[in-house]
Amino acid sequence: MLSRVDSGKRGMVTAKKSFLIVLRLLFILFSLQFIKVAFYRWDGFSYYMRFKNFLPDLSLAFIIWSFSMLLFAVAVWIFIFWLPKKIKPLRALRFEYMLIWLASFALIFFVLRTVLNDFLLSKYTALTVSVVLSTFIVYIVGKFADYEKILQEVNLRITPLIWLFTLLLIAAVPLSVLEPEAAHSDKVSFDSHPAGLSDIKRPNIILVTMDALTAMDMSAYGYGRNTTPFITEWAKDAVLFEKTYASSNWTTPSAMSLMTGQRPWTHKLWFEPQYHVVDKYENNMPQILKNYGYSIYGFVQNNLAHPKTLGIDDAFSISDEAYTFFISDKRWMNLLTRFYYNRRIAAELVIENNLLFKPLNLKHTRHPSYMRLVIYSGVIRAEPVYDRFFNYISQSHKGPFFAWIHLLPPHDLYLPPDQYIGKFGNHEAFETGEKQLDSDLLYSHYAPKRQGDVDILRSRYDEFILYSDQQFKLFMSRLAETIDVSNTIIILSADHGESFSHGYVAHNGAHLYEPLVRVPLMIKVPNISGGRSVNIPVEQIDIAPTILDLVSIPVPEWMEGRSLLPLMENKTFTPRPIFSMQLIENRQTGKHPLEGGTIAVWDGGYKFVDYFGKERALLLFNLDQDPNEENNLIDEKPEIAIRLKKLIDSNLDLANQKIAQHSER
Question: At residue 3, does pLDDT exceed 70?
Fold first, then answer.
């Protein structure tokens, strides 16, 4: 295959054969790496989907990987074959030497940057070592080995792999266009129009939720910084719940609990269904409202909370895709955004795990949040969501409506408009998305010595809250000009909180400390006097039944939450244990019991946290005396710990029994 040319001419192979050699070698290298990445990612995706649903995006990613490999092969061929022929000083370089040098360099650099990355100071060290070792290998091969024979042997041995990966690539084309099945869920039939209730005049309902807004950083809840001046004033005419706890510490399970009145161990959306959406989860509050004559509108900026992601979009007359709130004037960015949202698994395999990017540790692949810099152009704003709401309401508002407005701010990245940065000090620290990500603080544990940096990052978060507060002010002003607010229930809350303490920044993760799960809840009802604060702890799952009760719709038995209307009317309300949980480690498919995660329970002024599964840990706090959760009383109050542990275990056993009763999905 490798034929010699005249000794007076440079090179030993033709242009065509040289390109085929490069192409074949890179095809093998890319394909092997892709298989490694695919198996690694499937290990996680297998917890909530079957392989046949993983296959379409996997196939599409393989096609794109192969195309990028082709472009890279052209570049490599130009560098090691075409350029040396065109540039006189490089004519002495033989193609075979260049190929062996580049192959050795790529292999060594790849190993150093992936397998042995923890032992190196930087990528520049890896580059230096790779250059030296690959040069030494070429020297040894040129002096003691027959490089032509080596290339021929390598070419012969990789031929079966070439055929195998080519067949896989051909098969990937039809597989990539298949529509994956949605994850199944229980289906419940409702009467499409309950008799005798169509003529009842009911108020409009607007539910505004702000993503990652902890009550503990709101001045309306006593925070030292004046982060919510308007909301504080607005709440004077509302009922403010001092202690409202989210069902989880991240968006999807909390949003589903908000819409269903069920805890995560019941609705089973403790995973990221944006990769594999839920099909027809009809046990939801919007569906009930729709059956009673409400128009249902969704303006959800976070795809993790989108009705389509949650499997409840059939209830919504309007639920624009989340990516439409990030329209850019750059067409390529809009296409990338749609790709990232519609084919999420393929996008991550291509963008975050591609062989061309990861070894170089490029900023757009080092941290998933860098995708937000590309998709959101470095900013997250509330205005497009509010504007979309008013566009629809002003044009098509007829009869009572329920509108869910879910805003991404103040979710990270914490980038309010420039006029807000520095309001709480340190205006030149973490003022850009890149600086925030380069800090390596987001979604990470940190050492005590970095608390100063964390406090500065928290300033940017608080400024984002202030921006959100002012946007809510503008929203309320426009609302009064658009609809009859005297016949409208307005609820302000959040999906979960945000942490800048206890050694952890942002949300998600294993912890359920107060900043992560204590969220605002303010309800303004036209015929109920406001200006009151309720100090009894309540749950996020109580919001859905409260909404139904406020509009005189019966609360279904499958809702685990309770109506808060008695509290709002200053009537008798018996406190009960409050639960929050993080269960993302568990399988969603089949009848697998809940075997790991974190569950917290609040009861009688105490909070008990159970880290169960592989890494066991127990925490007990007296929140009345220790609101910052600094003193673990697990050894000092064993009787309380045992009682609360039994409370968690009994409810967890009941949840596992329900899971076991369902046939494998």
Answer: no
